[in-house]
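Q: I have 264 residues here and want to know how they pack in 3D. Can you give me a structure?
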Amino acid sequence: MDNCKQLPRMDQSVSTGPSSRASSVIRKQTVRVKGVPLKRDAFLVKDQAFLVSGGFIKTASLGQVNEEWLEDIEEPEEVIQALKAAPLKVDILRFWQRIPEIEAKYNYYKEWRDVAAIPITDYKDWFERKIVPQARNKIRKTQKFGVVIQETKLSDDLVRGIMGIFNQSPVRRGKRFWHYGKDFETVKKEMSLELSDSIFVTAYYGNELIGFIKLLLADRYAMIVLILDKTAHRNKAPMNGMIAKAVEICDQRKIPYIVYTVWL
């Protein structure tokens, strides 16, 4: 949709170096790389888990690349000291300074990244003033087709509908689609990840699921983790209708941003 606002974020890297100050607790944490669970070293510092990645140069960060935006590091110097004293070598600490903070707070090395985000005041203002007429027309088109857009709890029926969307083609955008061909239990397990902090927005045409969004809620963002539709029903503009519903939900919950993704 054409109401996307680019908001910069700072990706900051700090060399940890050796030190005898502070301490941290090491543990193994499961991460998923293209759906495959892997065990990675993690350090627990002030109730935050920092995953360690890399070969010769070890980098610590709050989760995987698309998860780092979920938390702030309130006292980075304390974290640095804890990582310096860690039982395993850590060379670099990487963390975000998240939107809406766009002025540098620290003197560390930093890189700017653009984030695709919808700033939300209220749904009526967004629908009437923030989006272009073509987007409004597509949302109305979804309604005219009788597509039902709603918030839906995860269930076995929803999982089966999601599998139908996953299994449309083994190739997506010219690349192997890694959700294709997964069995029911795998899809259910993956959709259940972070379920207590997630919302599913669905588009049904009759009894058929023709699109869904998984929204992951953080303190001041809702991140679109997955957004997919059925190609056979794109003439009904389910994507537009689902994004409109996501904006409405965030308005109701007083969440000021929907984040699409990071533009790397």
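Q: Anything worth noting?
A: The two ends are 19 Å apart (CA to CA). Residues 153 and 200 are 6 Å apart (CA to CA).
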